[in-house]
Design goal:
alpha/beta; eight-stranded mixed beta sheet; five-stranded parallel beta sheet
Length: 523
């Protein structure tokens, strides 16, 4: 791929979390310091918030690596659970045995017994909950009650809540004031600044093997990348990856502003810079000509200026003023609707998991990236007033999102949905029975055997390319499949490749797409 063209050893701007590419800005170090202080401060709650893509996962990984050896940790990545399910998941993570069908009291007693035993053995216990903005009030209250167990000097359970900024707004509500008062450390992770963005790009290129005397991103290009991405690391990765790919396709040795404009248009839907500047210049010229045409006495003889209408009656764009139809206030109800759209009888993720289905919480940097998954999904929206709602997106047609609700389907312009969508979404899919994560060349096991047999079935071949060892022939077939469907042809079978295999095998329901927009996710 393009990285060899630029003399790199690997792709420098993958959005996968790779410890070798760890970049700790001053604000990341501050966030980590707050978490470490909170863990060592004797219990209670620790809060880490930040916008999508700012590096919360990176901070979490650093924290886990620096926890003392005498620490037991339970990590909950999918908080869309009720109180019973969350406690059961925590017990599973900590290796606490309990009987099937245990009540909330049984689970609480088991967990309390574990905490007391850990304290006797001088061990700490930490519960880390990611995407905590999705927690229900009742679950948060149950979590608070877990911290009631304490000694004279410390609480026996330390809880880390990680989520998007709306988590702070939720915890500020009066009904959660008891929990909020128990937060011993909190930090809101901000995006990178201009200088940090430059250092971040150079750091990743150097780790990928770029010689110190070679420059791929001129200063003015980096400045525009910062302006377009607002310093959000994940967006920086997506833009830099696309612009390097485009430069490689044009046989350019460094990134140009022209190539950056094209990449921004593809990745983020931004209007080219010249066009924006041209409109601003034309608008300014028109304003000057208009002023020149108005008689000078006009400004002195107009009479008193009528008072402006109240702010509540000020006109605004129809799209901004109109409420968005088809939104739901409850995530579980949205997942239930999505499951119904897929023909499933339940939308509760634990119940779906028992039937071989999986709820996947993901993030996308643009509509194009979302469309690459080609799946109906539940979008998490945040209104200007910071209220969280959920949209069941079942199609994208002619620049509109098709939303499903109890009243049927509604079409909403993407330009209206976009400002409220931060990139978070959830989908439901059916993974292979042995799927535990991405597989690639050199891996072995039942998942590899399933993959080889799947391609043999698709190709009408009686003999699969591999048995249970991921060999070069199977990797070549995977790359061919990825190129066929415009996926990243890295030979690694991850989530997007498996989802596309689901689609090709007729095992999933794709997004409704109009012919005009079907190409949107393929550019």
């Amino acid at each position: 791929m393009y990285y060899r063209y630029f003399g790199l050893k690997e792709e420098p701007f993958s959005i996968a979390v790779n410890p070798r590419y760890l970049f700790m800005s001053a604000r990341h170090r501050d966030a980590l310091a707050h978490l470490l202080y909170g863990v060592g401060a004797g219990g209670g709650f620790i809060l880490l918030t930040g916008e999508v893509g700012t590096g919360k996962t990176t901070i979490n990984r650093c924290l886990l690596e620096q926890l003392p050896d005498n620490t037991d940790i339970a990590i909950i990545l999918n908080p869309a659970l009720n109180a019973d399910e969350l406690l059961a998941t925590a017990c599973d993570e900590l290796g606490i045995e309990y009987e099937r069908g245990a009540t909330l009291k049984d689970l609480t007693d088991r967990l309390h017994g574990f905490l007391l035993e850990n304290h006797r053995r001088d061990r700490n216990t930490v519960l880390l909950i990611d995407e905590a903005q999705h927690l229900q009030f009742e679950v948060l209250e149950q979590i608070r009650l877990l911290t009631n167990l304490e000694t004279n000097t410390r609480k026996l359970l330390q809880i880390i809540l990680v989520g998007q900024p709306e988590l702070s707004a939720m915890l500020a509500k009066p009904e959660l004031r008891q929990l909020s008062q128990r937060i011993t450390a909190r930090y809101n992770l901000q995006p990178l600044n201009r200088e940090e963005t430059d250092a971040y790009i150079r750091h990743r290129l150097q780790v990928a093997g770029l010689p110190a005397n070679q420059e791929l991103f001129p200063a003015r290009v980096v400045k525009e990348i910062y302006r377009a991405t607002r310093g959000i690391p994940r967006l920086i990765n997506v833009v830099c990856d696309r612009v390097l790919l485009g430069s490689y396709g044009q046989n350019e040795s460094r990134v140009s502003m022209k190539m950056l404009r094209q990449a921004l248009a593809e990745v983020m839907g931004q209007e080219p810079l010249e066009r924006r500047r041209g409109w601003r210049w034309a608008a300014g010229l028109a304003a000057l000509l208009l002023l020149a045409a108005i008689p000078a006495g006009y400004f002195y003889n107009r009479g008193p200026t009528p008072p402006a209408p109240p702010a509540s009656t000020q006109p605004s764009s129809p799209q901004a003023a109109a409420p968005i139809p088809g939104l739901l206030n409850n995530r579980d109800a949205a997942m239930q609707l999505l499951a119904g759209h897929l023909g499933l009888t339940t939308g509760a993720c634990p119940a779906l998991a028992r039937q071989g289905w999986r709820c996947e919480s993901l993030e996308a940097a643009s509509w194009e990236e979302l469309l690459e998954f080609d799946r109906p999904a539940v979008l998490t929206l945040v209104s200007p007033a910071r209220f969280v709602s959920f949209a069941v997106l079942v199609g994208v047609e002619d620049g509109h999102g098709v939303l499903r609700s109890d009243l049927g389907q509604q079409r909403v312009p993407l330009s209206v949905l976009g400002p409220q969508w931060r990139g978070s979404f959830e989908l439901i899919w059916q993974p292979p029975g042995d799927y535990a994560g991405p597989v690639s060349r050199g891996d072995s096991g039942p998942m590899v055997a399933w993959l080889a047999q799947t391609f043999a079935d698709l190709d009408g071949q009686s003999q699969p390319l591999a048995s249970n060892k991921f060999n070069a022939a199977l990797e070549a077939r995977v790359r061919l499949f990825q190129r066929q469907f415009k996926l990243r042809d890295d030979g690694v079978v991850g989530l997007k490749t498996l989802l596309k295999l689901n689609s090709v095998r007729g095992e999933s329901l794709p997004l409704q797409r109009s012919s005009g927009l079907a190409q949107l996710g393929e550019n």
